[in-house]
């Protein structure tokens, strides 16, 4: 369940939310609400995905946070949450001020792209980690079709 939740949340929904300003029809406020809602769903799925991985590992007595994948994923979800809260406070707070929003917008966009790249890196290292475990246990062969994906 962890891979599906993380992939749908932090890659699919996050990517769609970033593109909503360019692709969705409607007013600027409609696009802003859609961006906020999609990012909120992405964050909720990401937190649920991390919770499922933690619960699975804890139930089997497997230690967590030992690999690059787990640390990249933790950094990604923490930065995503901070970015979401900062965006909510900056762009939805009525007394935020136009100048402050104008100053923060390029940083918000840059950090959003950075976090998206971090999510892709965490997903790739997770897939590689899973493949390594399957090959080490001889569940799949080194030259099987699954390794090409």
Detailed description of the structure:
It is a single chain. By secondary structure, the protein is mostly helical. It has a single domain, classed as Four Helix Bundle (Hemerythrin (Met), subunit A). The chain contains 4 helices and no strands. The chain has helices at 2-23, 28-60, 68-92, 98-136. Helix 1 (2-23) runs antiparallel to helix 4 (98-136) and helix 2 packs antiparallel against helix 3 (68-92). The longest helix is centred in the last third of the chain and has 39 residues, at 98-136. It is elongated. The two termini are 19 Å apart. The model has no long low-confidence stretch (mean pLDDT 91).
CATH fold annotation = Four Helix Bundle (Hemerythrin (Met), subunit A)
The level 1 CATH classification is Mainly Alpha
Amino-to-carboxy terminus distance: 19 Å
Mean pLDDT: 91
Give me the Rg, rounded: 18 Å
Give me some keywords for this one:
iron; 4 helices; Four Helix Bundle (Hemerythrin (Met), subunit A); mainly alpha; Cytochrome b561 domain-containing protein; 149 residues; 80% helix
